[in-house]
């Protein structure tokens, strides 16, 4: 584990762990806050899209993203690992999203499907022939995506969000090999469908 | 796809392209240099991944990051300062939702209310997504773009206080709720507010009116009122141009609050003086007193704005 330089024992010196109890702690909190905001700028949109892809309503997804970064702040304040933070962020988002979706008892599976279809959206102004061809292609790919196991969809979506395979492995708590197998499997299916 | 065992597997191609240097990393690179078939396969996979990634960005039109950013900044500041300590005790984020019946979750939900304002008062058709991109924190731009009347600075700054923060008539209120799809039974939870306030030249036009939640934890109607009054002060002190103030409050009032209220909190001044500032005319005695008390120089007419 790569620490932030803040030993856990320093944390224990305060009654409320997240309250700055010295000027140094205050500076550290400020620095961490800036880091969190910086990561928020970078990952808010991909996280929001990822959460939405599970069919979670937009307000819920937005709140999940907020919770992710509040959790990240606590995580860093406790001096915990900074390794693969993007993967960590997505893992928290993934778990919170699943819980929220379960809590909502609404499982609009179609949303993921719609998202995948939209993700394969062609150029907005194709000519009619291209549009027809592209529509057929989309239908093929749609069928493939619909049939994909949830894990494969998650891996694919995280990759599309810009995560490295190692980070996806952290996020989904699976091995690097499993990620590459999943992505390769998904791409294989999509490419075969693409060829018709 | 792998008829010849000497070819590299798809998995290894993907990992190598991602910079993973496993045991076979060197072998993959070496093989790719000499195998057009594997290079083509790798290129196809990467191309499809790129296509997915690029299309992803155009997938959904996401709401502006401004309000969530401001919300997160506030919540982090609260955590840093130890405010909302009940929430700060929620160490594991995954426990947060699981303990919804507990005080911790209630405290957290209080904060959540800011973002979920309209979920607390959903429209009649609860299944339909609310049209606002900002969940009530910001108005729906299509319905409420903001409309200003033709008004001079002198006119605006000579408005009596009741005109600066004037109420909306019940008839117009009903029209606004209908437009936003809010049942009348929920109407007491909202203030029908001027996007551009009358004190900044905002018009009575329905395109300048929107239902603003009272119960949002942070970005609620009370905060917007504070912003309106602050901007009115600044405009009448010639510290902010009227057009800049109108644009700021109609564009993203939360960002405007961050800029004009939160970033530069009003100094503590005599309440009598403060009250006198609302109908403040440039160059008035009240303005001069304010300048002295606040340590600011009295800006001449036409002076550049803050921004």
Walk me through this protein's architecture.
- The complex is a heterodimer of chains A (about 200) and B (about 300).
- Chain A has about 200 residues and is mainly α.
- Chain A folds into two domains: about 10-85 and about 95-105, no CATH class; about 110-195, Winged helix-like DNA-binding domain superfamily/Winged helix DNA-binding domain (Arc Repressor Mutant, subunit A), CATH 1.10.10.
- Chain A is about 75% helix and about 0% strand.
- Chain A contains nine helices and no strands.
- Chain A is elongated.
- Chain A starts with 7 loop residues before the first helix and ends with a helix.
- Chain B folds into three domains: about 10-55, no CATH class; about 65-120, no CATH class; about 120-295, no CATH class.
- In chain B, about 50% of the residues lie in helices and about 5% in strands.
- Chain B is elongated and about 85 Å long.
- With about 300 residues, chain B is mainly α.
- Chain B has helices at about 10-15, 25-35, 35-55, 65-80, 85-90, 95-100, 105-115, 115-120, 155, 160-165, 170-180, 220-235, 240-250, 255-260, 270-275, 285-295, and strands spanning about 190-195, 210-215.
